[in-house]
Amino acid sequence: MLTAEARWIGETLNQFDAAKLSPVLNVGSSTADFREHVQPWIEELVFAPLRNRGVTVHHLDMREGNGIDLHGDLTDDAFLAELRATGYRTLLCCNVLEHVVGPAAICTQLERLIPSGGHIVVTVPNRFPYHPDPIDTMFRPDAQQVAALFPGCDLLEGVTVECGTGWDYVDRSPRALIARLKRRFSRLQENGGMGGTTSFIPWLFRRFLQTCTLLRKQRSH
């Protein structure tokens, strides 16, 4: 998650009373170390303000780890039933859809998790380099394309947020730069010379853009 993206999410959620947001499910959360230390602006701008307002947040990821409250597969109907039983009123799905094949299927499942009137915040890179985790399909939608994946929701807000350049996020100490280069060359060799190592270099001075959307599930008639 990029800094301006996190700020947009925090400000967007701050528009709503805590009672209307809680509980929140953060899909694709990664670990507490990632949220609080690797990208500390996530904790500072998104989750600390929610916690200070008394909003309950559960962090969900495919894997287990420190600060991951729930782990499971969103294509597993039994796991989905457990999530629905919790009664989440808000979902965060941030920087996930570019890492899955067939995002429409995941979005259908997410839409089923919240009641009518509930909210979904979705962010996806709009202009950003290749970044496998473990894959990157290069899905780079605009707000209308994101909204189309949630046909049972209304698009309340859809913006393209400028998030600085790669240079803003690089640890520029010599040791960190050498370690980064070693990791990228290793990935290049593993992938047969494709992707990863050189793909980020031109982005050091190109502007990143994030598609940020707020959706509300339509009420049943």
What's the short story on this structure?
The radius of gyration is 18 Å and the shape is globular.
Explained architecture:
This protein has a single domain (3-163, 209-217), classed as 3-Layer(aba) Sandwich (Rossmann fold), CATH 3.40.50. Helix content is 35%, strand content 22%. It is built from 8 helices and 7 strands; from the N terminus they run ααβααββαβαβαβαβ. Strands 3-2-1-4-5-7-6 form a 7-stranded mixed beta sheet, sandwiched between helices. Helix 1 (3-13) packs parallel to helix 4. The longest helix has 17 residues, at 174-190. The protein is globular and about 45 Å long. It starts with a helix and ends with a strand.
What oligomerization state is this entry in? single chain
Low-confidence sequence ranges: 193-197
What integer value in Å does the Rg equal?
A: 18 Å
Span between termini: 37 Å
What key attributes describe this structure?
221 residues, alpha/beta, Rossmann fold, seven-stranded mixed beta sheet, 7 strands, 35% helix
Topology:
Layout: H1 3-13, H2 18-21, E1 24-27, H3 32-38, H4 41-52, E2 57-61, E3 70-71, H5 77-86, E4 90-94, H6 103-113, E5 119-127, H7 143-148, E6 153-165, H8 174-190, E7 207-217
Helix pairs in contact: 1-4
